Amino acid sequence: MYKFFFIVLICFTLGFTACNSKFTPKETGYPALTLPNKTYLTGAVTGLPYAFDIPTYAVVDKSVAYREVDQQKTGWMNLQFPTLNATLYISYNAIQKNQLDVLVRDAYNFANNHSNKASFIEDSAFENPIGLQGVFFHLGGDVASPYQFFITDSSRHFLRGALYFDTTPNADSLAPVIDFLYQDLKQLVKTFHWKS
Questions:
Q1: Number of CB atoms found within 10 A of residue 167's CB
Q2: What percent of the chain has pLDDT over 70?
Q3: pLDDT score recorded for residue 151
Q4: DSSP string across 89-120
């Protein structure tokens, strides 16, 4: 009998003391992100064989070194988005005889290098208002580079761009920034032209 009262007393005490604190579950979510206003600068890319409009919140970095070679002389640059923690890496090649097929194949290979992490890879051909042609690659999933592209005049110039984030890839949390920067990439392609 005493055991019964003792067990009831312990259960009552535990039940009564356990309910003193109010439980509030944490909500799942990501921090709010304030995206900058979309305004573009014309003529901000200088000293290179090409030009395009850049967003006011982007920084041009022409001090690109690849394999210990200064690539500014060959037309390489980075377009950094410091507030969005992203960089658009841009490489340029003057097309040599019979080299266009190799450059296009390389661009497809660079995009397909992400196939082990990508949930899909879509490519879509485009032509900008002055007739330059290229291909956009949209890579879905938790990939390091969600967008890549190339643009060419098919005879003298070839430019390739790849957007990377300086963070661990997470498609869900990066989706607003990826969509935001995709609009900037479309503006870049739309206003892109060769200087010679």
A1: 12
A2: 86
A3: 96
A4: EEEEEEPPTT-HHHHHHHHHHHHHTTTTT-SE
Using a pLDDT cut of 90, give the percent of the chain over it: 51
- Partnered with residue 33 across adjacent β-strands are none
What residues have CB less than 8 Å from 152, skipping those under 6 apart? 95, 100, 103, 104, 132, 133, 134, 158, 159
The residue with tokens 């080299």 is 99
Gyration radius of the chain's alpha carbons: 26
User: What are residue 151's phi and psi, to 5 degrees?
Assistant: -140, 140
User: What is the greatest pairwise CA distance in the chain?
Assistant: 100
Domains in the chain and their CATH numbers? Answer: 56-194 (3.40.1000)
Q: Tell me the average pLDDT of the chain.
A: 85
182-192 average pLDDT score: 95
Asked whether residue 68 carries a pLDDT value surpassing 90, the answer given is no
Neighbour count for residue 5 (Cβ, 10 Å): 9
Residue 30 structure tokens: 């990501």
What's this model's pTM, rounded to 2 decimal places?
0.79
Nearest to 115 by CA among 87, 142, 136, 135: 142
